[in-house]
């Protein structure tokens, strides 16, 4: 049903499809209490300066943005790449080009923005033959569509396949990687994210070492006129061989990227579910 809805919305005019996506997000905000709770807890941790009313408004905008993101995923999978090429502008492209000129491949550090999949075809005018490290979906049917959809603009790689990622980097390709989720304490250190300790993967620092590849932060933002801005920023010096310092740098770069458009980030994830003191009740205790 979800795939069918996405396919239908792809056929509609862009403004109509995104409007329906925004309304769908608003409906989910009011009906899916569990995800609304997670979002409000995250916003309370990351934006303590905001009032309850302001966080509620930001949470609703987040759901609306992610509703549009569902529609944009359909655009990424099924619309011609000429459609996205006509709607994109790049900022900081010189940083990406300088990194590619080294000939050692590039790690495209990113985060889970609502226009996540659409960033793939959006980057095609500037980067060809890229790869993406991702966690395969638990549902085999959804995984089939995700893999096939992403194959239209990049090469999907299981995030455990580091040696294949190394091969891609040796071919001077870009490898997209988003480490901004909580995968538990194993293989992680607790580094500040919006001023709060968050389990952060140390594997992020291992990726550049595979081929001494530079890292560039890659952000995608949706504009009010239904165009998109891609932003490229160098991440250096990285890595430093200090796991905590490296994780802190990564979180800081991602945080800065999110703060530009916080409503376009996927706050529905339990980013702080693993805590150094063993307190796993951050999301269970809240009533929102």
Automatic annotation (TrEMBL):
Its main location: membrane. The keyword Acyltransferase applies. It comes from Pokkaliibacter plantistimulans. It is found in: Cell inner membrane. Transmembrane segments: none annotated. Keywords: Acyltransferase, Cell inner membrane, Cell membrane, Membrane, Transferase. This is Lipid A biosynthesis acyltransferase. InterPro entries: LipA_acyltrans. The keyword Cell inner membrane applies.
């Amino acid at each position: 049903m979800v795939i069918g809805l996405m396919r239908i919305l792809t056929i509609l005019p862009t403004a109509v499809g995104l409007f329906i996506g925004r309304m769908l997000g608003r409906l989910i905000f009011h009906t899916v209490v569990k995800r609304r709770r997670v979002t409000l807890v995250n916003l309370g941790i990351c934006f303590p300066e905001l009032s309850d009313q302001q966080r509620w408004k930001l949470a609703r905008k987040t759901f609306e943005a992610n509703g549009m993101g569902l529609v944009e995923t359909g655009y990424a999978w099924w619309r011609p790449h000429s459609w996205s090429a006509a709607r994109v502008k790049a900022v900081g492209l010189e940083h990406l080009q300088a990194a590619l000129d080294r000939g050692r491949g590039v790690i495209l550090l990113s985060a889970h923005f609502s226009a996540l999949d659409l960033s793939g075809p959006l980057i095609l005018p500037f980067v060809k033959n890229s790869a993406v490290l991702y966690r395969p979906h638990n549902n085999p049917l959804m995984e089939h569509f995700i893999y096939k959809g992403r194959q239209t603009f990049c090469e999907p790689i299981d995030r455990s396949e580091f040696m294949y990622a190394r091969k891609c980097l040796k071919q001077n390709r870009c490898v997209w990687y988003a480490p901004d989720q909580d995968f538990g304490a194993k293989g992680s250190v607790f580094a500040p994210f919006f001023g709060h300790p968050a389990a952060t993967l140390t594997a992020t620092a291992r990726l550049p070492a595979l081929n001494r590849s530079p890292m560039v932060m890659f952000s995608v933002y949706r504009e009010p006129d239904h165009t998109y801005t891609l932003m490229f920023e160098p991440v250096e010096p990285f890595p430093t061989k200090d796991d905590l310092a490296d994780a802190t740098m990564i979180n800081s770069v991602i945080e800065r990227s999110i703060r530009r458009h916080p409503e376009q980030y996927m706050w529905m994830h339990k980013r702080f579910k693993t805590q150094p003191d063993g307190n796993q009740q951050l999301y269970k205790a809240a009533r929102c």
